[in-house]
């Protein structure tokens, strides 16, 4: 039944409301015959995401059955959580908000609208870190061991295109591409692959030996000559990929491409090679062997091992062992639990490399430690231990 203007006026008088204090447009709502409360989900968007959709771009919801759903734009990832509201939300197609209506009191209008849906909750978005652990797990199912490997010749193992990865990984396209670079993945015959670490070290060894034999500076390694000299040993695209992973590309005034090898990255990779097959290493012996193993002219330093290896300076003799941050859980609580299970008390300097990636926007390591750890003093040094019992 449609209300008339007179009926609306009478209702306002009964409610003791003055018509001149209200918007001149009156919505008279009624329930549609096809009203439903389960066919619609409401999503709250900020201005940036609204403009993203209005410009014709898309937002994608990602997640397998065992994963919590996330929403991705081109360059960001958001957690999707259900937020309840005490006020019933009504869904009205083509509903106009007050800013879209005239506020001219001389123009009175009556709009009849139908309610097509009801909701008492909505999806709330919160920016989060992309879920990248799965990416390396998928790619390491079939690492690239070189063109002459038996597995490669037999074309065995799963391979993933960028479209496959975008469908499987809870991350935006930009975040995914950035992380593929971080984990040294490369595109081979249309598929994204991670070089096997031993094969990658083989490539790096070829490059550093060539640098040594040609007496080049580490800051000026010519791409063209590298490809000509090493192309007979390994695919040229893999030589160039290795240079991209361990050096910084630049072009000189003549247009020639050069690489400046990154000392920290090269030393770090060699440290991983030395530590990967031992449970623990005598720290003093390791530092000696490590320095002897890096290319002549490069210097090893302990700070190159942050997030890669953990030193125990309280044991006798002092020891070091491999502990890669990328092998730890992406979940903050699980990460702290595993770290405090490994070591009961941590200094901020020791634990920082293993929790830095957990910090959200504008969040500091100190704030993270305050929330998940308890601080105390030990021999004049501030240390942190778990807030909860750790088995």
Describe this structure in words.
With 391 residues, the chain is an alpha+beta fold. The strands form five sheets. The chain has a five-stranded mixed beta sheet with strand order 1-5-4-3-2, with no helix packed on it. Helices cover 34% and strands 24% of the residues. The protein has helices at residues 5-14, 47-54, 133-139, 150-153, 162-168, 173-182, 197-213, 223-230, 236-246, 263-275, 283-293, 332-342, 348-355, 365-372, and strands at 25-36, 60-62, 70-72, 77-91, 109-128, 186-188, 191-193, 221-222, 247-251, 257-261, 281-282, 309-312, 319-322, 346-347, 373-378, 381-386.
The SS-based structural class is: alpha+beta
Shape: elongated
Low-confidence stretches: none
Order of helices and strands: HEHEEEEHHHHEEHEHHEEHEHEEHEHHEE
User: DSSP strand (E) fraction?
Assistant: 15-25%
In what order do the strands lie side by side in the largest sheet? 1-5-4-3-2
Number of strands: 16
The portion of residues assigned to helices is: 25-40%
Mean pLDDT: 90
Distance between the termini: 67 Å
Radius of gyration: 30 Å
Contiguous helical run count: 14
Tell me about the largest β-sheet. 5 strands, mixed
Key structural traits:
24% strand; elongated; alpha+beta; 34% helix; three-stranded antiparallel β-sheet; 16 strands; five-stranded mixed β-sheet; 391 residues
Task: Give a short overview.
Helices cover 34% and strands 24% of the residues. It is α+β, with helices and mostly antiparallel strands and 391 residues long.
């Amino acid at each position: 039944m449609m209300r008339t203007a007179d009926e609306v006026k009478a209702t306002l008088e009964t409610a003791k409301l003055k018509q001149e204090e209200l918007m001149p447009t009156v919505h008279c709502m009624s329930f549609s015959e096809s009203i439903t409360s389960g066919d619609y989900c409401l999503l709250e968007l900020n201005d940036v995401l609204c403009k993203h959709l209005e410009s014709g771009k898309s937002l994608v919801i990602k997640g397998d059955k065992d994963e919590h759903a996330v929403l991705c734009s081109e360059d960001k990832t958001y957690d999707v959580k259900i937020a309840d509201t005490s006020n019933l939300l009504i869904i009205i197609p083509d509903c106009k908000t007050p800013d879209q209506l005239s506020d001219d009191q001389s123009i009175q209008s009556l709009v009849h609208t139908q309610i097509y849906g009801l909701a008492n909750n909505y999806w709330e978005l919160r920016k989060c870190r992309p879920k990248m652990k799965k990416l390396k797990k998928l790619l390491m199912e079939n690492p690239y061991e070189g063109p002459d490997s038996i597995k490669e010749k037999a074309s065995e193992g799963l391979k993933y295109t960028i479209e496959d990865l975008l469908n499987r990984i809870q991350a935006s396209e930009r975040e995914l591409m950035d992380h593929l670079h971080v984990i040294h993945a490369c595109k081979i015959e249309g598929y994204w692959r991670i070089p096997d670490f031993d094969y990658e070290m083989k490539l790096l060894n070829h490059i550093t030996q060539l640098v040594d034999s040609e007496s080049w500076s580490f800051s000026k390694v010519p791409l063209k000559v590298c490809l000509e000299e090493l192309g007979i040993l390994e695919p040229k695209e893999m030589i160039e990929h290795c240079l991209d992973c361990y050096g910084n590309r630049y072009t000189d005034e003549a247009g020639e491409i050069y690489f400046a090898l990154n000392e920290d990255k090269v030393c770090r990779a060699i440290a991983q090679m030395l530590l990967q097959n031992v449970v623990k290493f005598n720290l003093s012996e390791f530092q000696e062997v490590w320095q002897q193993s890096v290319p002549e002219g490069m210097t090893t330093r302990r700070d190159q091992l942050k997030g890669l290896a953990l030193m125990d300076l309280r044991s006798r003799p002092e020891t070091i062992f491999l502990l890669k941050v990328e092998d730890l859980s992406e979940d903050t609580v699980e990460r702290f639990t595993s770290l405090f299970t490994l070591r009961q008390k941590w200094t901020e300097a020791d634990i920082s490399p293993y929790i830095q990636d957990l910090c959200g926007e504008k969040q500091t390591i100190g704030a993270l430690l305050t929330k998940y750890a308890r601080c105390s003093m030990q021999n004049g040094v501030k240390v942190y231990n778990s807030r909860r019992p750790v088995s």
